[in-house]
Amino acid sequence: MKYVDVVIDNKSNNTDVLYTYKCEDDAVRVGSKVYVPFARSTKLREGYAVAVREEPSETDKAILGKLRAVDHVDQEVSLTAEMIRSAMWMKGRYLCRYIDAIRCFTPAGNAAVRREKQNSLAGEKGYAEHVEHLTPEQETALEQIGGAIAAGRPERFLIHGVTGSGKTEIYIRAAKKTLDAGRGVIVLVPEISLTGQIVERFLAHFGEDSVAILHSRLSAGERYDQWKKIRDGETRIVIGARSAAFAPVDALGLIVVDEEHESTYKSDFTPKYDTVEVAVKRLQDRDSRGVLILGSATPSVVTYSRAKEGIYKLIELTKRYNEVSLPKTEIVDMREEMKAGNRTVISRRLASEMNRQFEEGRQVMLFLNRRGYSTFVSCRECGYVAKCPTCGLSMTYHRNGSRDGGSGRLVCHYCGREEPAPLQCPECGSNYVRYFGSGTEKIEETIRQLFPGRTVDRMDLDSVKKKGELKKKLKAFERGETDILIGTQLIAKGLDFKNVGLVGIVSADVSLNIPDFRSPERAFQLITQAAGRAGRGGDRGRVIIQTYSPEHYAVALAAEHDYKGFYEAEEKFRRFMMYPPYSDIFQIMFTSESAEAAKEGAVKWHKRIGELLPEGHERNLFEPQEAYMSKIRDTYRYSLIIKCPKGSRRAYTEILMKIRDEETAQARKKKQDYIAVVDVNPYSFT
Predict the structure, then answer these.
(1) pTM, two decimal places
(2) CATH, residue 636
(3) Which residues have a Cβ under 8 Å from the Cβ of 397 and sit 6 or more positions away?
C-alpha cells in the first residue's frame, strides 16, 4: 500500500490543500494525473500526485480507515517530478493556488483533441545564412557557455550584445552542445511575431523533427500535439513565447531567454510569474542542473545589476557581426516642426530621408507604439470624451482601414468593447466632435498620401488577427515587396531584414508618459530596439527619432547607443527611491462588483499587514487607493502597494500568505465580497 498526496483540479481557495489517498500498486508516482473520488460527489475528479509515501504519516494514521483510493491514472499527460517541484515552488513564490501553478505545466485544457500527433512543421526546411567563422567576441562567449554545458554546471549568463552582434548564432551553437550532451533545450522569445524567424534558423540547423513550437496562437489541438511530442521525447528543442518555459522537456539542459528585458515575460494572469525566475528554478533542479542564457541589447536594470553583482556572468558583444557601425541617429524636435507650420505626424527631415532611401533602393520601417487611428475622441463644445462604459477608459478611434471617410468605430483596448463612432456629441448634441492623437492607422493614411507610389503595410494587433497574416506580412517585407512597414512594438525587436536603410520612430514620447517608475527604461529600450532594425545588411543604417522631449536622458542616451550611461543614471534614481533592484514591490489588487467592497478589502488588508510587519517597516506600506484603472468590465479595483527591502521577500510573503489563509478560513463562514490578488514586481501598475 502507498499513500499519495494529491492536488485536486478545482479553482477554489477552500480546496487549496493536499488530499491524501491510498494506492495499492506502483502506477502512481510524483507527477501522475489521477482520478479520485472527492467530497460527496459521485463523479471522479482530476488531480495531480505531488508526493508518494510508502508509509502513512501520523496524520494519515489517525484517519486510515477513512482514506479513499485512487481510482485510475492517466499516464498520457503525466508530469515529471521536476515539474511538480517547480510548481510547488511557484505556489510559495507567487502566492497562488497549487492547481494554478500545476496547470502552467499541463497541456491545453479540455479542448485538447487526443488524436494521432500532427507535425505542424512538416515540410518546413528553414533558412539561415551560413556562418563560417565566429567573431572573437562570439568565440569567447561560446567557450564560457560551452564549458558550463559540458561540465553540467547550473550557470547563468547575460549576453549584453548590441543589435546585430550575433546573439542568435551563439544560441544555436550552445543548443547543439546541449543536444550533444544528451539534454533538452528551450528557447524563449518575447513575441509570437519573433518565433517565425528564430524557428527558421533552428530548423535549418537541426531539422523539422528536432524542433517543437509552443505559443498561444496554436489551436488547442496543435498545442496538445506539440506538448505530447515534447513529453514523449520525440523532440528536444522547444521554441516559443512565455508559456514555453513550462514545456515538458526531460533532462533540461539549456534555457535561452532572448530579449530578456521585455515585459511580456512577466505574466499578467494568475499565477503572476516571472519567466526568468521560473527558468532559474527549473535549471537549478537536481534533475536538470542546466545553463541559462539571457540575451539583450538593452538588459533590464534589474538584470544588469545582478550581472554586476556576479549573480549572472556578464558577456559583452560590442560589435555587429557584419562589422558595420551602429546606425547614425538623429533627433527631431517636433516642437520646432510645429513652429515651422508642420502639423503632420511626419517631420520634414523624416520625409526627406525616406525619399533618399527609396532612391537608393532601400526599405523603411516606421515605429509607433500606439494602434488605432486616433487615441481619443472629444467634443470641442462641451469637453465630452468618449469612454468605455464598463472600464471608464478613453476609447480609441479606428477607421477599419477604410479610406472613404467612414465614421469607423470606437474600441476599448482593455476589454475589447466596440461601438460606432459618434457623428454628434452624445451629451450636448453639437457637431464639434473631433479626433485627437495619432495611431498606426493614421500614420498609414498619412504615409500613403505622402508617398503615393510606394507599397505600404501595417503590422499591429488589429492588422494581424487572421491566422498566418503576421507571417505573410513579414515574408512580403523580407522579399522586398513592401517599401514601408509601419508597426507597433511587434516590429521593434528581434526581426532581421537586410535591406532596411532607415527606421523612423514617429513618437518617442509614448512610453515616457506612462505612470510607472520604469517609463524611462521602457522608452530607452524601445528606441534602441527599434533603431537596431536598421543597417543589418552591408551598409550603415539611419534612425530618426521624433520627440517633444529631446532633452530627456532616456531619449538622448538612446540616440547615442549609450546603454551604460543610461544604466548609471537610472541606477542612481532607483537606489535613491528604493525601487527594484533595491527592493521587491508587492501590489495587491482588490476587485469587486461594488466599489465600497473593494475599498473595504484594501483597508482591511492594510490594517492587518501593518500589525504583522516587523518594527520599523511600517514606512514600506502605502495607503490603499483607487487603481489607475479603477473600473474594468464593470469591476471596481483598489490597489495596495508594499515596498519590500532587499532580503526581506520571504518574510513579507509569509505575512501575506498568513492573511490570505485567515481570509480563506473566514470565507467558509461568510463569503467575501471582494477578491485579493497579489502581484510581485508587476510590470504595470494600472
Answers:
(1) 0.88
(2) 3.30.70
(3) 372, 373, 374, 375, 376, 377, 408, 409, 410, 421, 435
